[in-house]
Amino acid sequence: MKNILFPPRNADRSSPSQPSPPLQLLAVVCAGDQGLFTSLYTPLAQQLPREPMEWRRTYGRAPKMIHLEANFVQFKEELLPKEGNKALLTFPFLHIYWTDCCDTEAYKGSVKEDMMRWQNSLRAHGSADWVIVVVETNDAKKKNKTNILPRSSIVDKIRNDFCNKQNDRCVVLSDPLKDSSRSQESWSSFLLKLRTLLLMSFTKNLGRFEDDMRTLREKRTQPGWSFCEYFMVQEELAFVFEMLQQFEDALVQYDELDALFTQYVLNFGAGDGANWLGSFCAPVRSWSGLLLRRPIDMEKRDGIQHGEASLLDLRSYLFSRQCTLLIFLQRPWEVTQRALELLHNCVQELHLLEVSVLEGALDCWVFLSCLEVLHRIEGCCDQAQLAANCSHTVGLWAYATDKLKSLGELCGLVSDKGPTSEDLNRTVDLLAGLGDERPETANSLQSPYKKLKEALSSVEAFERHYLELSHAAMEMYRAIGRLRSARLVGKSLAEFYMRKGDPERAEAFLQEALKSYVSEGWSLPVTHTRKQIAECQKLLGRTEDYLQTSALLAGDVNLSSEERKHFCQEILTFASKSTDKSQKVILSMGAFAQLTRLQFHPATASVHSGADLQVELSLQSLMPVSVCVQQLAASIHFSLEHGGTHGRSKGTQKQTNIGTVDFSQGNLSACPLSSSAAGPSLELDEIQDRSPSDNSLNSTGMVCKNTHLVMRRHDSSSSPDTPNCVSPPTVALDDGAHMLKVQDITLEPGSNSVVFTAPSGDPGTYTLRQLCATVGQVQFVLPHIYPLVQYEVYSQEPLLTVEPLSEPLLAGLPQMVKFTLLTGHYTVKKGDALQLSNTETMPIMPSTSCTASIRNTASLLSIQSSEKVTSISLPPTPPYHTLEFQLEVLCIIPSGSDRPANERLTNGEVRHRDTQRPYHEILTSLMSIDCPWSIYSTLLALTFYIPFKTKHSLLSAGNRKYIQVCVQNVSDVNFQLVDVKLTEKQHASLELHSLNTKAQQLVCSKQSVFCLWEVRWKADLPSCLQCVFSANFSPLNQDISAFKPFHYHFQLERVTTLYSVQAEILPAAGEQHCRSGALCGLEVCITRLTEPGENEMGEESKADSDGLKTTKLMYEVADSSSNWAVCGKSSGMVSMPMLANATHKVQIEVMPLFAGHLPFPKIKVLKYLPHTAAPAIQPDPDSCVENDSLSLLDKTLDDQGDTASIRSRGSVHSVGSGEQQQRGLAMPRLEPFSPGQVFNHSHARQVLVLPATDDHIMEVNAT
């Protein structure tokens, strides 16, 4: 809270605009030398409250800093508390005896006796809080030099005489009126002592008072207990806290009294009443409202003290005290909140206590109280604060407006006829109960008293004040965003205008209120408000609006049957008028009937041109009686389909099934119910643009079908076509060329079914846009049918498709394909035939028993076949029918050399293989068909799959050679193989000896068969073999005639064994077997087996100094299974003479890592080709040797016998860096031997490795 105008702590407390508690301060009684005290009173009263003291309270309550202000009074016997008097406000908390005596004789003669009388009086009244102040001045000492005692003698005597055990009760004040450091120090010490004693006394007596108050409260269940007496006791505690400016603690006391009284009233309502409540049940004689301009309303307080206060008096006084404390606490907005609760609770409490109140008196009291609170808050805050915090005060404005309206109705000030004599008498009685105006507001022109008295004085004054309050409340509600409350006040204003005979203004407020009720779904207030709107519209003569509202009320189930029939009859009466026929009234159909379902027959909602299509509408009539409809029509929008959009696919619609659309209550119009803020959902269609020549896809996209619904503006009102609409807008009626019409039907209350015959002459898309029911001069129109409802009329070109009868089509076997002809608009006449072009790779196998099916009717086909063309005569077929027949075709499997290198479709695109199919090879056969309805030939492609995947391998055993062929069945059919053969086409002397024992082999689905032949030769083994694998196959359990041939061509090169590699592993010296972890010797022996051939005498060989041809080989020892560790060099270069039986041995140290029968390390032998040699095969880019291992070959490797480790990967290895290769420099490389050129004798050998000897020392302790 900012800038709130509160009085400062020491402000004038007599100003009513700045209230402060008019209470006494802490009482301090002064005895002794009154002249001395009088001289010190002013500085003492000023300096005592300057310094705060820490106040520590009991029961664990938090300490607080307080300023102590005292009321110093002269000692009198009457001021001492009497026995049984527990009042705090008049209680003397501290007694002070003042003396400046420094003469021994004077002390003994009079001062001592006066002190003794003073102490005896205190002791007799039980007052133990006292202090003796001895004031020392230099002037007094000078006057009595002869009798003067030492400085502390008088103080010591006083302490010995009166303060035996309480020496701190005697205080010395030195020269208090002088401005010296000694005086200031003495004065500060005295003030601290005085504050401490005063606070101790106050805390002690306050605790005693609180204990007594609690004891009194605990006795509230005993007979004779009085709430008013307890009220005065606890209020005295609140006064004490307020006196100390502890306003929060003071407010707590009043809140406790408020809660205690409220609980007693609630118990009384529940049947448990207290006797003292009887005084509050007296009839209310005064209703002057709250009085908040006085800090304490002594008149009402006296009434409470004497038990004569009424319920309104008690509540008024209690709230006025709470208001005062809240203002001091700078919480004015809490005052408004509490005031609103108080006013509502007081009304209820009067009903619970059954208090007799004059009719209208409570309204007067509430009205005056609301304005009094508002005026009190206005006195504390400026206009900017009031405007910023109007959310706290608007409730009081609205409550005052409501009560003023009730008073106006009670006193006859609202009716257009004015008040009667009885109303005037009632007004006089109400004004009499207000009493005289309070003096605090007598000079104010806008006091609540004057406003109420003026408002009840005349009709014009009442209207002025009521409109002023109503508009103020509405503006405040709108400013804080509470539109519902603003419209509720407006609805009350509308009722006021209706009583005043002004329906035009009333309707505007009623329409605003209706918006809130509709948007929040309050059905009963919607019905009640609509009835009021209908009354206004009827009085204003707005026929169309009145009929629309009457239609809504006729279908409203919240009304009785008689009321609904009345409003329905209003519509029918107007409709039956025979006046101007051209002037029709267009109303929204949402109030008349609801479209619940639409069904197409046939259900596909798609027919060819000229076919029959029926549309069945299900309507739910909301009228309470049967209504004769002269015409029910649906307007249709026709759109012509073009080539680019002919192939579009339908978007997903909210349908129960194809051809049926169910409409919910929120989907009857262009927008959903007003409670939904999302708007209508998007209705999307996919658009595909295809080429007219080959139907290939050019582009695709999305189109919104209900753009006119999505893009239209939505306001806060509901849809005009729903039964909950506020103010139905003007409905536009389309009059298109295409209409669905039905004449003279009767709509019964509830469900009705209407069948239309839809037009289907022109091909295109027909969209249902509007629905119109004509009843005489009235037309009920549904402007938008939502979701979108369409049906299609098509004109289709003939379409011929060929598809396999079963997937997949297998090459090499007769397969059935299905021809399907959709005739479209074409009529197949007698003599029409299909001309199929024959191809060598896929001959058609005609059958004399081939039949065609037309609507389950079989007709025999006539098929004539020649060398190039197969002609199929078609039976006569009407338009839009389907003709089906089957033909048997055979795709011949080409030999390996004749198979296509790539597979391309007719449009040049490369066919992408189906990764889900396991077939190795795919064959595509093209078929050209000439149709009688087209001058162009139709190209159809059939895809066949070769059922076998075949691969071969060359196996060696020393110099002996074997050829293995693997036939894998990749289809789902089980085959049998017979006449399995392998032949070599170029060398007649070569013999291929079959090692296959079975003449017939079974190849199951997804299984393989291996066939093996041994190669035998007489002279020399050719380096290249041209082989043909052949077999006959057929599905299982077929006769011999079903077998078809299968051929597989392949070529084997470099089949001669050039080198043999033998290896031996020798244990360490002195060991019989190898041991793990110990070095062993690996001896590798490479032997040349044959003389060099012509192709080996090229650049890869080199002549040494003796003229002997040599070649360089590279060996590499590696163990991928991690059983061996190669120590030292694992690879190297050897120079092999190109002579038969030439041998080279290599010694390598290896170490077994595990014990057991370990396989020999893997030994690789590669050809080393110099940079001048041409590669025998193209190098694989993924098989380059690592660059970091090639630096060893930068030197002339031709002169080196051995090198360091060169690790090779793959088949061909380039020796050199990638940078050198990029510059195009010729580098040495490694090339692997072909399979069979190198035979490794130790390939599958194993060697026994024993565990390493391990000596362990075990310590054993025996105890």
UniProtKB/TrEMBL annotation:
Keywords: Golgi apparatus, Transport. Residues 1205-1218 have a biased composition (Low complexity). InterPro entries: Ig_TRAPPC10 (IPR056917), TPR-like_helical_dom_sf (IPR011990), TRAPPC10/Trs130 (IPR045126), TRAPPC10/Trs130_C (IPR022233), TRAPPC10/Trs130_N (IPR056913). It is found in: Golgi apparatus. Residues 1201-1224 are annotated as: Disordered. Residues 1023-1250 form the TRAPPC10/Trs130 C-terminal domain. GO terms for cellular component: cytosol; TRAPPII protein complex. The keyword Acyltransferase does not apply. Residues 805-944 form the TRAPPC10 Ig-like domain. One of its GO terms (biological process) is early endosome to Golgi transport. Residues 27-335 form the TRAPPC10/Trs130 N-terminal domain. Its main location: Golgi. It comes from the Eukaryota. This is Trafficking protein particle complex subunit 10. The gene is TRAPPC10.
